[in-house]
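Progress note, sequence design subtask.
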């Protein structure tokens, strides 16, 4: 199976879950070119993934899910990345929503909440997981265009308490599955707080009053992700659809095993799957086509030999970083501290995405002018993989943060709230 090209030592249950992923790949692959051309997420993919049970891939079985782990998610996004990177990316962001359920429950078990907070936190966490298992698509909306110097993600969207719930106001500039997902799992800062302790999470129904879709996203990267973002104007969210306990967000982050909220390497698996597909495509093209004068395969020329040597090295570099990161984040007995895992990921994310982009660039050169078409795998992959150079953070930022960690024993915060004036 394709997922085994990344996760080479699958257990029997992992293989069974991977077979579900394998079953949807032909449909994803068939729709990829048209989805890219129109820049639209295929609505049929929601039902396809739901019927395969994949919307609950990483949800524990006791909540109705398939019980998969980060290994399953990485294998899934890698395999989908070989078929339709846009769908793989949107699916990744849906799957990250599970952390909003799993990590709060772990924080409860760790004794981080008092008796009054536990019922509220548990109810919200379990709602996240059961909705995913039941087939709801959750879009994970955190990122915004507002930036602060000391954090990777800055939240300016506000939540004001009113009778029976909350009023949300703000704009989310990045979030796959806009207009596709059933709910937008939205981060906002509680009124009266100016630190990450005031961050809260809300279920925002796609069609709720006050929710508007931003202008269509005409991006350089994966075009069929429905990545428009949303505007929220006095959107009312009931109390039982919110996790508004101050400090809950930061407490749950302490429970992640490694990077970010513990699943970020699965996004790099999307890019690696895309890179593997473009590598396979150009290898087939240049070994089956021959020179008219000699009859030798085009791949036998010195230039192509050099390009394939570089592409192979780049692809293997991506695999090495990704597999080791997966090992340190999923080992039953942790053998690296969370700080070390985080530091490694800041380097690894950039190393993987730049290596994957180098594969696509090499394929473009090896394919010549005939491959320089946006309707083909090589042209699309070059643009798709360009997204990895900037998404979340570029390689240069990762290296800078690691240097600060090494030399100054400090790093950027994961989340911060924006000053009040920036939210207006």
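Output:
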């Amino acid at each position: 199976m394709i997922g085994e090209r990344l996760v080479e030592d699958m257990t029997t249950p992992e293989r069974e879950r991977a077979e579900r992923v394998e079953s949807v790949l032909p449909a994803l692959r068939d729709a990829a070119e048209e989805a890219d051309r129109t820049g639209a997420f295929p609505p049929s993919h929601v039902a396809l993934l739901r019927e395969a049970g994949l919307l609950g891939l990483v949800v524990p079985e006791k909540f109705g899910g398939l019980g998969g782990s980060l290994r399953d998610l990485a294998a899934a996004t890698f395999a989908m990345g070989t078929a339709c990177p846009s769908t793989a990316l949107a699916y990744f962001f849906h799957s990250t929503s599970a952390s909003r359920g799993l990590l709060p429950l772990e924080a409860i078990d760790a004794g981080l909440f008092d008796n009054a907070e536990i019922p509220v936190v548990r109810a919200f966490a379990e709602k996240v997981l059961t909705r995913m298992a039941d087939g709801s698509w959750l879009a994970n909306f955190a990122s915004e265009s507002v930036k602060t110097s000391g954090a990777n993600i800055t939240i300016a969207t506000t939540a004001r308490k009113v009778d029976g719930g909350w009023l949300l106001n703000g704009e989310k500039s990045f979030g796959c599955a806009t207009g596709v997902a059933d709910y937008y799992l939205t981060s906002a800062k509680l009124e009266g707080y100016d630190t990450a302790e005031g961050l809260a999470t809300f279920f925002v129904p796609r069609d709720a009053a006050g929710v508007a879709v931003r202008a269509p996203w005409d991006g350089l990267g994966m075009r069929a992700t429905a990545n428009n973002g949303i505007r929220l104007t006095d959107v009312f969210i009931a109390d039982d659809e919110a996790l508004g306990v101050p400090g809950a967000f930061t407490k749950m982050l302490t429970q992640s095993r490694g990077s970010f909220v513990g699943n970020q390497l699965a996004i790099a698996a999307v890019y690696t799957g895309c890179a593997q597909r473009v590598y396979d495509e150009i290898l087939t093209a240049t070994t089956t086509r021959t020179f008219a004068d000699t009859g030798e395969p085009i791949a036998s020329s010195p230039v192509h030999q050099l390009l394939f040597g570089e592409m192979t090295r780049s692809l293997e570099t991506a695999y090495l970083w990704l597999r080791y990161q997966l090992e340190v984040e999923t080992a039953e007995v942790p053998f690296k501290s969370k700080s070390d895992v985080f530091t490694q990921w800041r380097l690894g994310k950039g190393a993987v995405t730049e290596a994957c982009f180098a594969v696509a660039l090499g394929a473009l050169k090896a394919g010549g002018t005939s491959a320089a078409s946006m309707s083909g795998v090589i042209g699309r992959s070059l643009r798709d993989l360009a997204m990895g150079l900037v998404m979340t953070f570029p390689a240069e930022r990762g290296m800078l943060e690691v240097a600060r960690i090494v030399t100054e024993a400090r790093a950027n915060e994961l989340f911060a709230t924006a000053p009040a004036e920036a939210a207006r």
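The chain is about 45% helix and 15% strand. Work on this subtask will continue into the next period as scheduled.
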